[in-house]
């Protein structure tokens, strides 16, 4: 195997110092255009690329960011991950994707990421509990952590989230204005959905309008089959005259599963018999087959804020951003 060319060899071939070679590959470094051109041309001829691991010893940074993800089966995570990885990589950062679920010890995973010398950790999911982040094993020397797309109640761990309170107020105002009076709410796994606060705000804003009797449905996880199973139990056990006239689902995947079951197995109409609302604006929900009313999170803006915090361009703090209600024929 051919040995990799070194910065010293490039410097000798280009007739410059080794430090000039290093500056040529350092964004924003002071170097003349002519010297930079000469170095880059020589480096290309020698097939040289800078050793980022060696550079990290001098800068005390690795350019690596660990992204912890749970619930990979939820396809709504993919657009978020696409935006997140694209923007991190465009900023010169390497993304380390770590699968976290109930079979893995979160504390050990965090310690492992720290041993990899990552510059930051992004917690993207709902399975991260407060006691995990305050574990005594995770001392003050841990890299900075940021929570994306869910709330964080831990001091020193900022979150960047869609404004759930504003979102649910807009949704409830819309449904109330359309004349719905018997609302229901379908949540995902109980231990995870509490971090999203959508059910809490849904109940609060209906109470302000004098509606306190809300049917609560629970799905075992965030998936279409789980949404279908949840609504199947509800419709099988509830007399037609006592059923909800509108069902808010905690995300679009649950809503899609519920709609398929409502129309397919029970032969009911959406929205005439039961209106459906989702959350997240998953692409499939906008298709003609579903026409799902939903709420879109400001995905790109949320990722931009996390990136600015990691790069030190803004102070780390919890930030909520507004999304937008998307009204379609399902409600």
From TrEMBL:
Q: Where is the HTH lacI-type domain?
A: 5-59
**Record-level Gene Ontology MF annotations:** DNA-binding transcription factor activity; transcription cis-regulatory region binding
Key word Transcription regulation present: yes
Q: Which PROSITE patterns match?
A: HTH_LACI_2
Record's Pfam families?
LacI, Peripla_BP_3
Q: From what superkingdom does this record's organism come?
A: Bacteria
Which CDD domains is this protein grouped with? HTH_LacI, PBP1_LacI-like
* Record keywords, A-Z: DNA-binding, Transcription, Transcription regulation
The name on file for this protein is Putative galacturonate locus repressor
Q: Which organism is it from?
A: Rhizobium tibeticum
């Amino acid at each position: 195997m051919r040995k990799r060319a070194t910065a010293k060899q490039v410097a000798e071939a280009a007739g410059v110092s080794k430090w000039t070679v290093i500056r040529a590959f350092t964004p924003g470094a002071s170097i003349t255009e002519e010297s930079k051109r000469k170095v880059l041309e020589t480096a290309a001829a020698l097939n040289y690329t800078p050793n980022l691991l060696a550079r990290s010893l001098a800068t005390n940074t690795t350019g690596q960011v660990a992204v912890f993800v749970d619930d990979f089966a939820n396809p709504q995570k993919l657009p978020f991950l696409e935006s997140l990885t694209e923007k991190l990589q465009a900023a010169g950062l390497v993304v380390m994707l770590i699968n976290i679920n109930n079979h893995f010890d979160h504390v050990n995973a965090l310690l492992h990421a720290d041993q990899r010398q990552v510059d930051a950790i992004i917690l993207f999911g709902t399975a991260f509990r407060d006691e995990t982040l305050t574990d005594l094993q995770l001392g003050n020397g841990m890299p900075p952590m940021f929570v994306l797309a869910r709330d964080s109640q831990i001091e020193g761990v900022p979150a960047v989230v869609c404004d759930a309170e504003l979102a649910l107020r807009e949704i409830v105002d819309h449904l109330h204005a359309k004349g719905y009076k018997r609302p229901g709410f379908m949540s995902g796994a109980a231990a995870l959905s509490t971090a999203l606060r959508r059910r809490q705000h849904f109940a609060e804003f209906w109470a302000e309008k004098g509606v306190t009797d809300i049917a609560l449905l629970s799905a075992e996880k965030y998936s279409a089959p789980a949404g279908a199973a949840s609504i199947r139990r509800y419709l099988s056990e509830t007399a037609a005259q006592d059923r909800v006239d509108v069902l808010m689902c905690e995300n679009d995947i649950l809503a899609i599963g519920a709609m398929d079951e409502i129309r397919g197995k029970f032969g009911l109409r959406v929205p005439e018999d039961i209106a459906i609302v989702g959350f997240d604006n998953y692409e499939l929900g906008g298709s003609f087959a579903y026409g799902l009313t939903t709420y879109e999170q400001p995905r790109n803006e949320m990722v931009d804020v996390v990136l600015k915090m990691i790069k030190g361009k803004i102070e780390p703090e919890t930030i909520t951003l507004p999304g937008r209600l998307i009204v379609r024929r399902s409600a």
